[in-house]
Each structure stands twice: as structure tokens, then as C-alpha cells.
Design a protein that fits this description.
binds NADP nicotinamide-adenine-dinucleotide phosphate, 10 helices, alpha/beta
Length: about 280
Amino acid sequence: METTATHFIEAHGARIPALGLGTWELSGHVCSRAVEQGLRLGYRHIDTAQIYANERDVGEGIRNSHIRRDQIFVTTKVWTTHFAPNDLIRSAKESLVKLRLSEIDLLLLHWPNSHVPLAETLGAMARARELGLTRHIGVSNFTVALLAEAVAACPAPLVCNQVEYHPFLDQQKVFAACRSHGMALVAYSPIARGNAKKSEVLTRIGAAHGKSPAQVCLRWLIQQNVAAIPRSSRLERLAQNIDIFDFNLSETEMQEIFALGSPTGRLTTTATAPAWD
Ligand SMILES: NC(=O)c1ccc[n+]([C@@H]2O[C@H](COP(=O)([O-])OP(=O)(O)OC[C@H]3O[C@@H](n4cnc5c(N)ncnc54)[C@H](OP(=O)(O)O)[C@@H]3O)[C@@H](O)[C@H]2O)c1
């Protein structure tokens, strides 16, 4: 049987465990406990960011789990105020100090920032990789046009674009762009921030498989070869969200879930967001 330890999304030499643990809004003991519990349950991919102010707690959870470092894929993100080249390298080093790691697995630009030339920022990302601060680099919240610009400007391969993706948001354009660049799509807010349970369709499909609406969302993403990083602070939900490798959604069910998607289903609202596809 497949598990999160055997199911990877591959892109430009990166092997990203398809199911990861998000940590946005988790901090302190709640965060380190969720990371530790998640790793013990079988999660092998942890998503954090400098702006979440929890890299220390994530690092503590990793150490407390006693899982070997080379078994865990750690992503962190550089905040937009650190996109000037020297700032970016400093920021990556600070993340390593807070995480108490010698290397990040995947370093992302958290959001696009039109105030700093993209080529300069991406040059610094490639430099961070050369310096051994991170094994892989990528972006987050990039549109189709920004992805094309980034791929053309970056001296090293970009392995992923992390974007909001769940059944209520149609992301086919940016997903097609990721595929055409050989990049993985990593889905954030994959259970629509807990809103999956409000859907009659997801509830009905889940009931047919003995699964919850959240599990149906995650399975639907994994079956598209998308990585998903649901967050939970509760042990039973951490366990539930990883228990998605023992059932299959039929093609009819997949299509029924695709039909829930709309371009207006986005939950992320921020004034600095790019013009979405
Ligand atoms: N790159 C970016 O700009 C960006 C933006 C947003 C998020 N992210 C990343 O993506 C991760 C996930 O996204 P997210 O945190 O926005 O949303 P999410 O994972 O879709 O949803 C998390 C919410 O759902 C609840 N939940 C978890 N499992 C559940 C289940 N099985 N049934 C019902 N409710 C459940 C959680 O509450 P409990 O804790 O009470 O279980 C929490 O309130 C983040 O944590 C972060 O790492 C990245």
C-alpha cells in the first residue's frame, strides 16, 4: 500500500512527499507538538515560512520526533521584504539558524514582489542553492505570466509553485503552466481552510468510501499528481489527513469534484496579490 513515505511528486530532481503538513498560524508548543506528532504519524514533508514566525518551533518538533533528518522534506519561504540579493541570502541563513538545520530542502519566494527586479531575486535564490543553504528552490503565488518570466530569468531550475488549490478554486491555467515548465504544484489551503465539510458533494463522495470531505479533497489533489499541505493542530485530524492512500476516486467522482471549482472560489485575499489568472 502507498503511504506518504512512498508517494512523491518529482520535479527537476526534487522528490517532494505528496502529502505534507502546513504550519501557518501554529506557534509555540502547539506547533512543535503538531510537527512532532505529524512526523510520528508518517508525515515526511513540513511547510513553514519566515513570516509564520514559527521556524524555531518547527525545528523543535523535528528534533523531538527523532526521525532522521534525511527522511524529512522541509520547505520554508523568504518574505517579500528580503528579496534584495544580500537580504535574501541573510534571510535563508536566519531560517537555518531558527530551524537548527544545516540545509533547507526547498526554499520558496513567498509572494511575487514587483518592487525588486525578479532576475536579481532569482539570482540570489540560485546562489543560496549553490551555497548549500537549500537543496531546491521554487516560488509561491506566481501566476502563469510570472512563472514564464521566472523560469526565463532563473539560472537554476524552479521545482514548484505553491498556490491555493482546493475543489472550490479552478486552478487549471496555473497547473498547466507548472506542468509545461516541469514544475510541481503544491496546493495550500487544500481543504479550503476547513470548509470542505460544508460541501454536499464532498460529503456524499466521502461517505461512499468511508472517508471525510477533507480526505476527499486531499485524495482528489493527490490523484492529479499535486502535493498538498493540510494543516491541523489536532492529533485526530493529523491522522485523518494522512489516511488517504487506501482508496481511489473514480473518474466520475474526480469530474464531479472538478465541477465544484470556480475562478471566484479563492480564500486568500491580500492587497499585494498579483492579477490572478
Ligand atoms: N504560500 C502561501 O502563501 C500560503 C498561504 C496559505 C497557507 N499556506 C500553507 O498551506 C498550509 C495549509 O493551508 P491553510 O492552513 O490555509 O488551510 P487548510 O490546511 O486548508 O485548513 C486548515 C484548517 O482546517 C482545519 N482542519 C484540518 N484538518 C481538518 C479535517 N480533517 N476536518 C476538518 N477541518 C480540518 C484546521 O483546524 P484544526 O487545526 O482545528 O484541525 C484549520 O482550521 C498552511 O498551514 C501553510 O503552511 C501557504
